[in-house]
Amino acid sequence: MTITPGAVTTAPPAPALSSDALTGKRRVAFAAYVDENYLPGFLALLRSLALSNPGVCEDFVVLHDDLRPGSIARIRALHPRIVLRRVNTEHYDSYKKGDQDNYLVRKAYFILDVFRLREYDTIITLDTDMVVLGDLGELLRLREGLAAVPQFFYGQHKLNSGLLVIQREYLSDAFCAKLDATGRSGDYELDKHDQGILNAVLDGDFVRLDARYNFVKRRLSGDLPVPDDTAILHFTGRHKPWQGGEAGYGQAEDRWREFELSDADFQAAYLARSGTLHHDLLVHLGTPHVARTGDTESARKVAAAHITAGDYQDAVDILSSVRIPLDEAWPHEVLGHALMSVSRHEEAKAQLLLAAAAPNRAATAYARLAQMAWVRGDDAESLRYATAGISVDPTHRSSRLWAQRAGTVPPQELGSAEDQLAHVAFYMDRQGNAGDKLLPETVRLGFGSDTTSRRWHSVHAHRLFDEAALERVNARRGLVIGGGGLFIPDTMPNGNSAWQWNVPDEHLRGIDVPIMVYAVGFNAFDGQSYRAGRFRESLRLLVEKSAFFGLRNHGSIAKVRAMLPDHLHDKVRFQPCPTTVSRQLVAGWQDPAKRDDTVLLNAAYDRAGLRFGHDYGHFLAEIAKAVRGIGAHTEVQCVAHSLDDERIAFDLRREHGISLPMIPMYDFDNDAIRELYARTRLVIGMRGHAGMIPFGVGTPIISLISHPKMAYFLADIERPEWGVSVHDRNLGAVLTERAIGILDAHAATVADVHERQQTLWKVTEANAADLRVILGA
């Protein structure tokens, strides 16, 4: 039976914004003006950027007006994120100075088109006669103003051409209007030594950068060596290295020629770099390199990058394309990992057993073998492999986890099958994520007060849903699917569904009891996507089969509807996460008579690169300011939903000398989690359930937004001001002001939380009535 959603008043849908707009994540790009004459210089610049900063890969905007298709192809071969933009010469037709046929003048004009870009928050311009020799991290972390290196010869009030670090306030119509007005007035000087119009508008008002970020060739006259700390070497002057160079600058030009490489040599040089290699560059340059050379180690690196991004089949394909020697354990392990992630278990087992022969890869290989056996339901084999991993490395955390899972005796089912509901969820391990630990029980409370095995038959989402599992589910009254953001591609990958429930289509089709999807979330991070058609096919079948399909926020609803045909859109409805209405669901709940005078702080570190981008240092410094400000008013304590969350306390102490108590919530049972959050006065949390759980027990919240789902929830309760982006330029001040405002008006804010909660409870009650009809209760 399928129930059509009734006319229940729900919170307004979340705005249809991009993920980075919701999280406030800074969009960073490089930019340059390129023409055919300077193309050799630009190609060397691209190579130097990748080789000197192998972990950096932002969009590179190429401004041009005459590049040939073959030239564009050569550029694209070197960088995976090229954005081509034609300059608009009409902007400059009315300018009163400048020889339009002079390249240096045209370049000075056309680079002004950078200020007309609106897609980015920070743009770093580079000249085509530059090479990058050092780390650009400082430039990528800049957050304010327009930064440049002052001119070396012609006065510190002017900026030198080539390098600019431009922030959002300058990428505006208002600033462009100033540039155009100055250009039309003719009140500027334009020659090969300066930026002319820009210098006239700024009049010295720019952030000064160290000369090493735009180290001009002229400082090396007399064949001086390039200083070791030079980050960007700029070949100013008429004579460029690719045109034959200039006498007296031999050592500088030798540095440029380090990047005069063929595509094949460039790819090999990048793959040979140590340290962190950026996923996009590694895949872009490594794929043709592996195809040409068949190099096993390069194939392993590219495959590992694919796995990190959730592109498991791509990882299988590239490692399967090369011959892996029997004694090279690491590639066998990575291939085994990729194969198990697409549910090709027998092939994966063979690869992992080969990897287990090497002592340095054995523990990880055994842990993966234990995981596969557990997924297939073979606890004895899983325990055997996990024990082997521990014997190789007694400290190996993953092996210990699988030993614990495989050795745990499942609770005895007390009720009869016909009285039970089957429940697919992610059942968290001891010391696992506190929010995920609480979720399955809270979902069950949405169907009644008895959450025990008398009423419920547990189905772990990550174990293969085989014929035996299908038979057990069909013996129950119905199937509930819910307990977190199950729509995420990489937490426990499988090739059967490409989301967290490991269910083949044929077994999903075989379910003949009502299927109720309850408060599931679409959990892809900003910068993460579902690339597999397999997920869409499984999702469509699930929606078709479901009698009830409820998602926990309107943002998830929009994302899922976009993947479905129109006729299925109306089946997707709003069902708030039950943790947000815990006060209504927990039998005998009583609000605390007195609260502790504390503020609890939570930060999350899973997928830290997607959460923070280049801004972690900024985030930590701003949190330190907020902790000092709030701490002068109320005691601040850290709360860890998982072990990784404890990093915030370590980093604050090491970097800023702040010591905070750490509460290990991952060790708490469900009642203790709710009780702690109910007793505190305010929770500042980055995890989704560090917002939803305290809200559900009536505690005010401020969300540190690093994931779209935080903004989705705040939009649903019509309180976007209860969130602040981890990227906010003034995070510390904003957080302090809002926190103290909530603490000073605490009773009123708690009343507001209760009122917001009532809106979600009405939706939950209306859905519960529909669910009772579905279940014939």
TrEMBL record:
Domain Polysaccharide pyruvyl transferase: 479-705
Matches recorded under SUPFAM superfamilies: Nucleotide-diphospho-sugar transferases, TPR-like
PANTHER family for this protein: GLYCOGENIN SUBFAMILY MEMBER
Stated name of the protein: Glycosyltransferase
